[in-house]
Amino acid sequence: SLHVLVLGSGWGHAWLLELGALTVAIVGLSVARRSAGARSGWAIAALGAIGLACAAALSGHAAVPQTTLPLATDVVHVLAAGCWMGALLVLLVAGLPPARAATAPARAMAALVNAFSSTALASAAVVVLSGVVAAWHNVGSVSALGGSSYGRVLLIKLAVLAVAALIGLYNWRRARPALAASGDDAAIRRAMRAELTAAAVILLVTAVLVAIPTPVELR
Known about the structure:
By secondary structure, the protein is mostly helical. The chain has two domains: 1-59; 64-219. 83% of the residues lie in helices and 0% in strands. The protein is flat.
């Protein structure tokens, strides 16, 4: 029954945690909109984000078996990916437009992009490192990468991730200095949209990946 599914299964517990964490995040963002409660609101929203990452780990392959390292790695992986692509989306949609209308738009936009770059670089590094640990836990051997359905889909995810990383590298090495020099953000906005498109493809591939048994689970 639905009661048993929700309250008596790991998937149900993860779903309840996800629902609760989402509620906490929404409350935090609502509080953060008020200038008097901005700091506490963002802290509450951050707790909600951590809860959402934990829910994702508990409903994925990291929860089989439920050991500390795979679960912690998955939580860190989700949080780092969210910091990388989530911050990029906020920068593109809510950061650059008002900066473009500032008194000194080139300086304002360059400052925003520079502030984001350090976060993106650190988050991308954590995504790669935690992804390697998670992949080894799920695949177990190099031969299983090409010799299993899970491994082949994982290789597709890694290829798209490499594309996103290359676009991010272009932003950091070429588009960012060009923005500071000319004040024209057209090139960096195009690159950001391409990077977010790659991120959307990664999410789709991940949705397929979590539905496929891992080589370790099939042993």
